Amino acid sequence: MNTALALPVQAAAVLAGALAGAGITAAVVSLSTLGKVREQVRRSGRERYVQETEINGFGVHVTVGKDRAKMDFMDLLRVQETRKAFYLFLSANQAWILPKAQMEEGDCARLRGLFSAVIEKGKLNIKGSR
Questions:
Q1: Which residues pair with 80 in a beta bridge?
Q2: pTM above the 0.70 mark?
Q3: SS3 string of the chain?
Q4: Rounded to an integer, what distance in angstroms lies between the CA atom of residue 25 and that of residue 21?
Q5: Mean pLDDT by 10 residues, the chain (130 residues)
Q6: Backbone φ and ψ of 65, nearest 5°
Q7: Which of 36, 46, 66, 76 is the most buried (most CB within 10 A)?
Q8: Which residues share a beta bridge with 56?
Q9: What sign results for the dihedral spanned by CA atoms 100, 56, 68, 65?
Q10: If you ran DSSP here, which 8-state letter would residue 49 be given?
Q11: Can you give the pLDDT at residue 29?
Q12: What is the fold, at CATH topology level, of the domain defined by 52-125?
């Protein structure tokens, strides 16, 4: 009878050990990845990421350093507004983020007006568009 009780206890101990080992491994991988990312940022010399965005009737123009990108409004997957930012989705997993805290007074209302005029209603999720 002691053997019957010992098997579930042993199984629980093995499971607990495996879970603890997996947790430690995940923490080490996470710290290792974070260290690698920081090292790459230091090596690239880009400790600051400055993105300049211009939005006009012709589309969205983004400049980061010497790199430039332009996207017509009709090519955006969707535009979404949250309490803190506008998100211009280029694909399901990629978006240009426009933080409201970095905008001047009146910019949010102007962006809403422009997006309402040029973005299809089905692709638009901003205040007043519902």
A1: 87, 125
A2: no
A3: CHHHHHHHHHHHHHHHHHHHHHHHHHHHHHHHHHHHHHHHHHHHCCCCCCCEEEEECCEEEEEECCEEEEECHHHCCEEEECCCEEEEEEECCEEEEEEHHHCCCCHHHHHHHHHHHHCCHHHEECCCCC
A4: 6
A5: 59 60 48 58 64 83 84 91 92 89 90 90 80
A6: 65, -125
A7: 76
A8: 59
A9: negative
A10: -
A11: 45
A12: PH-domain like (2.30.29)
Per the listing, tokens 């790199």 go with 67
Q: CA separation (Å) from 130 to 17, 78, 111, 116, 124?
A: 52, 14, 16, 11, 9
Residue spans per domain, the chain:
1-48, 52-125
pLDDT at 83: 93
Any residues with CB less than 8 A from the CB of 5 and at least 6 apart, and which?
Answer: none
Q: How many CB atoms lie within 10 A of CB 21?
A: 10
